[in-house]
Each structure stands twice: as structure tokens, then as C-alpha cells.
Amino acid sequence: MREDYKKGGKSKKDPRLERAGVSGYNKPKKTPNHPTKSHVVVAKEGDKVKTIRFGQQGVSGSPKKTGESSSYRKRRESFKARHASNIKKGKMSAAYWADKVKW
Question: Which residue, among 103, 91, 95, has the nearest Cα to 27 in the 3D structure?
């Protein structure tokens, strides 16, 4: 870690936030020009900071809507069941953010 980002030094914005183009920690953003992933987030949990890219580009999730079809409901439930163990890992996993943002 660079000297000016350590505690007691000058408090500058983390360069990872600027590079990812997000407004702050744990604030996901759509990334339309990334070839494979649809979203990016700079996740922070305690002292750990990690840039996470998640979501398949071009594929829409299926957030719960009133009057949704049973196929969309099953699609959402299947995603959550398939990735349940990874979603439980918390903010430092891509599955957590995909579940929160896309599903």
C-alpha cells in the first residue's frame, strides 16, 4: 500500500475507485464496454478491499416483479439455489453482488 494511503497520512481517494469508475465502496455500477462482465463493484469489508466484476454481459437478470411469469420466478429461484453457497460468502464474492443487483 502506498505511503499516502496509510492511516495517519494524507487521506486521498483509493485509486481502485477511480479505475473502476464507481462513486464509492460497495456501490455497483454497470460496465457496458467490458467484453465479458456487466457490472463492477469495489467491495470493502473491514480492511479488505477488492475489485469484483460480475454478471454475464448481455444477459438480463430477473428481479422479482409483480405479475411475473412462473418461468421467470423459476429462473430466479434456480440461480439463487445454484449459487447459494457462494452468495453466503458475503460482500467479497461475485455471486453476492450478482444476487443483489441482477436477481
Answer: 91
Domain boundaries, the chain: 3-101
**DSSP per position, 19-66:** HHT-SSTT--EE-TTSSSEEEEEEEEETTEEEEEEEEETT-------T
Confidence label for 2 from pLDDT (cuts 50, 70 and 90)? low
Q: How many CA atoms lie within 13 Å of 51's alpha carbon, on the beta-carbon side?
A: 12
Phi, psi of 27 (to 5 degrees): -120, 95
State the average pLDDT over residues 4-13. 56
pLDDT tens digits, one per residue of 18-74:
999 999 999 999 998 889 999 999 999 999 999 999 999 888 877 888 888 898 889
Residue 57 sits at the vertex; the CA angle it makes with 65 and 94, to the nearest 5 degrees, is 75
Q: Which of 45, 47, 62, 49 is nearest to 98 (CA)?
A: 62
